[in-house]
Design a protein that fits this description.
Elements (H helix, E strand, L loop, with lengths): L2 H13 L9 E3 L37 E2 L2 E2 L5 H8 L4 E4 L6 E7 L5 E7 L4 E7 L11 E2 L19 H8 L4 E3 L2 E11 L2 H10 L5 H8 L1 E13 L2 E12 L1
Parallel strand pairs: 1-4, 5-8
Antiparallel strand pairs: 2-3, 4-5, 5-6, 6-7, 7-12, 9-10, 10-11, 11-12
Length: 241
């Protein structure tokens, strides 16, 4: 049976409501996940490190939301509830430690991956690309296709000017890539402070407000293009208090 035929059979099982059993957690000790942003902590790029200048603005929240899930607050249970049961792959150690949940389209060409690290939450959406160790744990999901989109409109197939229309001026522009880096201070909402207060009942009011009134937020978005069309999207957001 050809790979494409096998994908079609599996997709039929998923769409028919039959469960395809997968382990819940797998540990892989390699860095073949070429698409991973956190992986660079383990396999740094060659050449001198780029100096990052953060744009002091807040991108629209919709750029970090997909299928009703917000990137840095969605739990593995919520992700599975939206896209289906899938194995969580664990890689790396310390700063490069990363947990990944991968979904693919019925044709096996489009991948949607949720990744979490020590502080980062990252979403990847890409078409094609090299194979990697562990891609067999990507679960077929009828909710994933080349048309899947972030709530703000970011999706595969967009031209560079369309991406700029959504995100504004990038930090870095190349013939096949746009990179955005954002860094800003975020004021906690009254709801956030009430929740945090419950978890920190022994802190004085002064200590509590110094620690929790504001947080530092960093966001990174990388868009890669092939033949003038978006074929790889990485969206990362992290929050520090």
């Amino acid at each position: 049976m050809r790979i494409r035929d096998w994908h079609a059979v599996l997709a039929w099982f998923v769409l028919s409501g039959f469960a395809v059993s997968q382990p819940q957690h797998v540990r892989l000790d390699n860095s073949s996940d070429w698409w991973s942003y956190i992986r660079l902590e383990e396999v740094p790029p060659s050449g001198p490190a780029e100096q990052v200048t953060f744009q002091p603005r807040l991108p629209a929240e919709s750029n970090f939301r997909i299928a009703g899930l917000t990137l840095d607050s969605a739990s593995p249970q919520q992700i599975r509830a939206k896209f289906g049961d899938a194995t969580e792959v664990k890689r790396g150690d310390a700063a490069s430690s990363r947990n990944q949940i991968c979904y693919e389209s019925s044709a096996g060409t489009t991948h949607l991956i949720f990744e979490s690290g020590e502080v980062e939450s990252v979403l990847y959406l890409f078409e094609g690309g090299p194979k990697w160790d562990g891609m067999e744990f990507c679960a077929l999901s009828p909710a994933v296709s080349s048309r899947v989109s972030m709530a703000g409109g970011l999706r595969l197939g967009l031209a560079p000017e369309q991406v700029k229309a959504i995100l504004g001026t990038p930090n870095t522009t190349a013939s096949d890539k746009l990179v955005y880096c954002f860094g800003f201070r975020k004021k906690a909402t009254a709801k956030d402070l009430a929740r945090l207060r419950k978890h920190n009942p022994d802190m004085s009011d002064t200590e509590f407000h110094e620690s929790f009134d504001y947080s530092d937020v960093e966001a990174y978005i990388e868009a890669r293009f092939a033949s003038g069309k978006l074929n790889y999207l990485a969206i990362s957001r992290s929050e520090y208090r």
